[in-house]
Write a structure and sequence with these properties.
Elements: H1 3-14, H2 16-19, E1 33-34, E2 46-47, E3 53-58, E4 65-69, E5 77-78, E6 80-81, E7 86-90, E8 98-106, E9 109-111, E10 118-121, E11 124-131, E12 148-156, E13 161-169, E14 182-186, H3 195-198, H4 202-211, E15 219-223, H5 241-258, E16 268-273, H6 275-286, E17 293-297, H7 304-307, E18 315-321, H8 326-338, E19 343-348, H9 355-365
Parallel strand pairs: 14-15, 14-16, 16-17, 17-18, 18-19
Antiparallel strand pairs: 1-2, 2-3, 3-7, 4-5, 4-8, 6-7, 8-9, 8-11, 10-11, 12-13, 13-15
Protein name: Esterase
Keywords: Signal
InterPro entries: AB_hydrolase_fold, Esterase-like, Ig-like_fold, Ig_E-set, Mycobacterial_A85_antigen
């Protein structure tokens, strides 16, 4: 595994609060509307058609309010206090399209924005804001048949506790005897098993693809990858052994026992974003007899020498944002293809280490699974 590649990706994520709001010239359009991720009835934060974000926070006793955007919450937009006790401010430039974490720093204390919904990221519940993307229709809530996302609790001997996972089952699941392939889908550092359905809209992406007849329906299983057991920057100290046992020795047998699955390698895939991609890389190499499809989303690459003398995967999918390191993904894919592997690369346009990159990656990956 190229740990340097993952570390660079994490560093990019850490400073995304700075890069998402770079200073630009020109007039800022006054067509701001509430963010789609606001609490019910809350007018702020707001987003305009250019991708600028505007914040308004009531803190009459405070002296200073700053908004820090992105995983890790670096940089920030300082808000100006008005006579009415409201702090207001607009980002210095347009933000990248898609989902972003953020929080408030009020007189040195860290708080969530009471106007926004909360999402688990940066090892805590953070506020979320959505900058509408031109292709947002593929993850929109539509009037189509919907699958279910259910919480399961499964026993884990290695951790001496019950652990949680969320399972997406497609529309029509359970109405007959049909058995389904399974994708095990991992979150990144700072996140947990709620990330892919909340921030990632994975269930809506699947519902829409199934309704359009573009994919073979399959189950998705999302569980906590123990990524937050290490501190930021400590990726080199992360050991895969415990999570590998939880996933392959405990969760997969539980899912195959309790759900209508096709319980074999050719009908089982693993994918992960960022640090979840690192986990996917390590586990698929260690357990190639368990998974037939591999996917790393902003999560590094596979090298041909790593795959030598192992069962050949049916698909290797590598992706990232155009603002990450797309040349690495493209070059690795070319080398894998030359060596006879079914390798596919995807680069998300105008995005970085963020959920729009990974939503788009899932959109591209899903139709290529379980053919």
């Amino acid at each position: 595994m190229n740990l340097k590649c993952i570390t660079i990706a994490f560093s990019a994520a850490c400073i995304c609060g700075l890069s998402h709001a770079q200073t630009t010239t020109g007039e800022v359009k006054d067509d701001f509307k509430p963010s789609p991720l606001n609490q019910p009835g809350k007018a702020y934060p707001q987003v305009n058609s250019q991708g600028y974000a505007r914040f308004r926070v009531h803190a009459p006793q405070a002296d200073s309010v700053k908004v820090s955007l992105g995983l890790g919450g670096q940089g920030g937009t300082r808000l100006t206090k008005g006579a009415d006790g409201y702090f207001t401010g607009t980002t210095a430039g347009a933000m990248d399209e898609g989902f972003h974490y953020y929080h408030l720093t009020i007189d040195g204390g860290v708080f969530n924005d009471p106007g926004a919904l909360n999402y688990y990221g940066s090892t805590r519940w953070e506020s979320g804001i959505e900058i509408p993307a031109p292709d947002q229709d593929f993850y929109a809530l539509k009037n189509v048949p919907h699958g279910n996302v259910q919480q399961i609790l499964f026993p884990s001997a290695i951790t001496n506790t019950s652990r949680r996972a969320f399972v997406y089952t497609p529309p029509g699941y359970g109405k007959g005897n049909t058995r389904y392939p399974v994708l095990y889908l991992q979150h990144g550092w700072g996140e947990d098993e709620t990330a892919w359905s909340n921030q990632g809209r994975a269930n809506l992406i699947m519902d829409n693809l199934i309704a359009e007849g573009k994919i073979k329906p399959f189950i998705i299983v999302m569980t906590y990858g123990m990524t937050n057991e290490i501190k930021w920057g400590g990726i080199r100290d992360f050991k895969i052994d415990t999570f590998q046992t939880v996933l392959t020795g405990e969760l997969i047998p539980y899912v195959d026992t309790h759900f209508q699955t096709l319980a074999n390698r050719d009908n089982r895939a693993m994918a992960g974003l960022s640090m979840g991609g690192m986990e996917t890389h390590q586990i698929t190499l260690n357990k190639p007899e368990v998974f037939g499809y591999y996917a790393l989303l902003s999560g590094g690459i596979y090298k041909t020498e790593e795959l030598k003398d192992k069962p050949k995967p049916k698909l290797i999918f590598l992706s990232c944002g155009s603002k990450e390191r797309p040349e690495g993904v493209k070059n690795a894919t070319a080398e894998l293809k030359a060596a006879g592997y079914n390798a596919v690369s995807y680069v998300s346009d105008k995005t970085a280490h963020e959920f729009l990159t990974w939503r788009r990656s899932l959109l591209e990956l899903a139709p290529q699974l379980f053919k």
